[in-house]
Amino acid sequence: MKKGFLHTVVIVGLLLVVSGCSNFQKLLKSDDVEKKYKAALEYYEKEDYYRANQLLEQVSPLLTGSEQAEQAKFYLADTYYEMGDYLLADFHFKTFYQTYPRSPLAEQAMYNQALALYNQSPSFEQDQTTTVTAIEALQEFMVRYPSSDRVKEANELIDELLVKLDKKAFDNARLYYQLRNWRSAVVALDNFLKEHASSPYSEEAAFLKLDAQYRYALESIPSKQEERLQLAAEYYQNFIDQYPDSKFTRNALQVYEDTLANLEKIKKSNNQAQANS
Fold it and tell me: How much is the pLDDT for 3?
């Protein structure tokens, strides 16, 4: 008896699904714009964003000039966002707030457009053009709506994206160090420190710059070694002043001691040369 009942329930459920699909297909083929729009809103409320989207795509252009046009365009943009199609969500939300700048929904649309860009931001290893665009969109939102309840979250998202840019920039600079191209490493790491002074990677960058300078000096021609070792010693002093409790302190001290030892050798060699001349 129980098995037969369950079988009946399954059949009824399947029939309802088939019926629902059939009704939806009829709606898509219908010429009744009002009926389609009403159904789209019902699907949207039920979080059936795919069906809502399909209907809104059809009726939104047909509602232009009507009272429903504004709402229809906003919901269309939002269905794309909810479905994870951030590229089209970005386009439709931007179009919305540019078309209806005084709409009560304009603030939400502008913020959602920035969120769509935020969600398109790739991992730090990839090109960060979209990340920069997302930061600019969030900043533009805060300029336009400085009193918005969303400003705090927007700032947090910007901070998160900036860390990603920091990571990308640091990895690019560190690559020269990993390739043992010491001169280029010093330049790249120095530029990183100037452009990302408050970065969480600045401490490591400062140590690598010191170490790269020391290694660059050792591989230089004899006439340039003293000057470049002295610069390494300066980098050490700057590093210790800025990061007195650094986790790289021991390694930095070793580089400094090696630098001083090599400078002492150069000094002795120079004195010996003068004595023999």
Answer: 55
Cα dist from 96 to 43, 74, 117, 148, 201, whole Å: 21, 7, 15, 19, 39
Give the E-state strand segments of the chain in sequence order.
Answer: none
**Rounded CA gap, 255 and 235, in Å?**
11
pLDDT tens column, 24-35: 888 888 888 999
Rg of the chain taking only CA atoms, in angstroms:
32
Cα separation of the two ends of the chain: 115
> Token pair of 182, please?
């010491």
Q: If DSSP states are collapsed to H, E and C, what string results for 83-102? A: CCCHHHHHHHHHHHHHHCCC
Per-residue pLDDT band for 10 (boundaries 50, 70, 90) equals: very low
Tokens matching residue 197 = 């002074």
Q: Nearest-5° angle of CA 55, CA 58, CA 62? A: 125
Please state the rounded mean pLDDT for residues 239-259: 97
